[in-house]
Amino acid sequence: MAQQFAGRTMYLIAILIAFLSGNGQAASSDLIKKACTIDRGTVDLDICIATLGSYDQISTATTMQTIAVHIAQVGISNSTATRSYIEESLAKPQAASTKATLEDCKEAYDTVIPSFNSALGEIKKDKEYQTATYDLLLAATDYVGECEKSVVNNKMVDQVIQSGNKAVEVFALSAYQIASDLQKP
Ligand SMILES: *[C@@H]1O[C@H](CO)[C@@H](O)[C@H](O)[C@H]1NC(C)=O
């Protein structure tokens, strides 16, 4: 009797877990799709969905606000890692044009990272979604654009910097999209 009861309880718990996790997944893939359906910029939908989906903390988010928070946090750690790489490269001997681009990119990331940080505070604490959209849009366009322009002008080929720049666009514009949806009355 007790065993039968335990068995039934386990069965019900299993169903409950399946239900909850199934729901969670459906909700977050909808949220990722929403984040990646961006009305500004040139981020590819499939690349955006694959990128955001590869981060657990983003793909398990269940509300608009928390997914935006997690995207901004991943944006901060990703762009900080890119800046560290740039700094390490600058510490090594480099050709003059490479050095110039690395310096432009360091300056660019010195503006990108604080923008992600401001947006994070605005979304998480202040619920100032409109201000967050400005910061995120600037990070994805003008700010990271300084590095992108310099890379193109000096014909630099650097996978870490180029994928880092694309990643800034993906994270900043997807968080921008959610923040602008949140801002709507
Ligand atoms: C930043 O994120 C992108 C997309 O996930 C990834 O390809 C890239 O390796 C990351 N860069 C760093 C320096 O971690």
UniProtKB/TrEMBL annotation:
Question: What is the species listed in this Swiss-Prot or TrEMBL entry?
Answer: Genlisea aurea
Question: Which InterPro entries does the annotation name?
Answer: Invertase/methylesterase_inhib (IPR035513), Pectinesterase_inhib_dom (IPR006501), Pla_a_1-like (IPR034088)
First and last residue of the signal peptide: 1-26
- Key words, A-Z: Signal
Specify the protein name: Pectinesterase inhibitor domain-containing protein
Pectinesterase inhibitor domain ranges (all copies): 27-178
Pfam families attached to this UniProt entry: PMEI
Q: Which GO terms describe its molecular function?
A: enzyme inhibitor activity
